[in-house]
Specification:
The chain has 2 domains: 200 residues, NAD(P)-binding Rossmann-like Domain (Rossmann fold, 3-Layer(aba) Sandwich), CATH 3.40.50.720; 113 residues, UDP-galactose 4-epimerase, domain 1. Helices cover 40% and strands 18% of the residues. Helix 1 links the parallel strand 1 and strand 2.
Length: 318
């Protein structure tokens, strides 16, 4: 099939692009290259475009008219702290960009969409494992834009028969190929690696949470498993009549910050004692996915362990 991947030159998007290419799909990439790296997408046709810019609708319509069968929409701003500082821009980019995409899809009758959503839609849930029916209560503009995006997708499904899957990513890390490594130092594992490379001490934000070892627990999912979930979602859109659904994409197992750091020490061979600092504002103590729906509906399960995640991420930056 012919698939347009927005944000396809980014860390996650490029893994999706490569899996699609490996199975023989034709892939078009749309990326504004603000965080994307052209070298990541091989010989995929690339369109340099910001979805929220003036004129994006018409440019998109002409791209979609090349017999595109489905869109996987990852292009978005994703820095939580920045979203608190620049909420209007986050709405313009993430919500405005999606509105433009949906309108161009409607105008060209492209009716299959996989939408990159986030566990940030849940906010600070008070349950050990969130199901897709756990009430969403995002606590920052980034999470809000993803939740509004899900509503827009649901409305398009109702209004004109869009077939769509919202994938709520949990904590994505690792590398499927060394050249597709996460080059942003924005999340726990890359931050810890950067600290070790700089001969500084990794930081743990809080060791007094109501969790087994006192540090925060998250559901770390390998980027290659996550990319594969997009392919499963595309098949689902083909399989059923006008489906529209939302899926958690995680492993179903939580790991604490201390457990991640212990795995980093094993993989790198560096013995370190982290610096325990105060809790970081807005961190839920525990956030892990209930993955029943995606397993039963899409037949998808994560295959890779925390060791695979840390090991592949470390190898990729050597
Ligand atoms: C993980 C854990 C930190 C750095 C964020 C977004 C979320 C999603 C994924 C996109 C937390 C702790 C971190 C450090 C630490 N993004 N930590 N020392 O906050 O769970 O999720 O990325 O959809 O929306 O909020 O990820 O990697 O920042 O933190 O102890 O130096 O590691 O407190 O418990 P988070 P993270």
């Amino acid at each position: 099939m012919k698939v347009l991947v927005t944000g396809g030159a980014g860390y996650i998007g490029s893994h999706v692009v490569r899996l699609l290419q490996q199975r023989g799909d034709q892939v078009l990439v749309l990326d504004d290259m603000s965080a994307g790296v052209p070298a990541r997408i091989g010989d995929a046709v690339a369109h340099h475009l910001d979805l929220a810019a003036p004129g994006a609708h018409d440019a998109l319509v002409s791209i979609l008219r090349n017999d595109v069968d489905a869109v996987i929409h990852l292009a978005a701003r994703k820095k939580v702290g920045e979203s608190v500082e620049l909420p209007e821009w986050y709405y313009a980019q993430n919500v405005g960009g999606l509105a433009t995409l949906l309108s161009a899809m409607r105008d060209t009758s492209v009716n299959r969409l996989v939408f990159s959503s986030s566990a940030a839609t849940y906010g600070m849930p008070d349950v050990p494992a969130v199901t897709e029916d756990t009430p969403c209560a995002p606590i920052n503009p980034y999470g809000e834009t993803k939740l509004v995006g899900e509503w827009m997708v649901a409305d398009a499904a109702r209004a004109w028969g869009l077939r769509a899957a919202n994938l709520r990513y949990f904590n994505v890390a690792g590398a499927g190929w060394p050249d597709l490594a996460d080059t942003a130092v924005a999340n726990l594992i890359p931050i810890v690696f950067a600290a070790l490379k700089a001969n500084t001490v990794p930081i743990v934000f809080g060791n007094d949470y109501p969790t087994p070892d006192g540090s925060c627990v998250r559901d770390y999912v390998h980027v290659l498993d996550l990319a594969d979930a997009h392919l499963s979602a595309l098949s689902y859109l083909d399989r059923e009549d006008r489906p529209h659904s939302t899926f958690n994409v995680g492993t179903g197992t939580g790991s604490s910050v201390f457990e991640v750091l212990a795995e980093v020490a094993r993989v790198t061979g560096v013995d370190f004692t982290p610096d325990i600092q105060d809790r970081r504002a807005g961190d839920p103590p525990y956030l892990a996915a209930d993955v029943t729906r995606i397993r039963e509906t899409l037949g998808w399960s994560a295959t890779k362990t925390l060791h695979d995640i840390v090991d592949s991420a470390w190898s990729a930056i050597q």
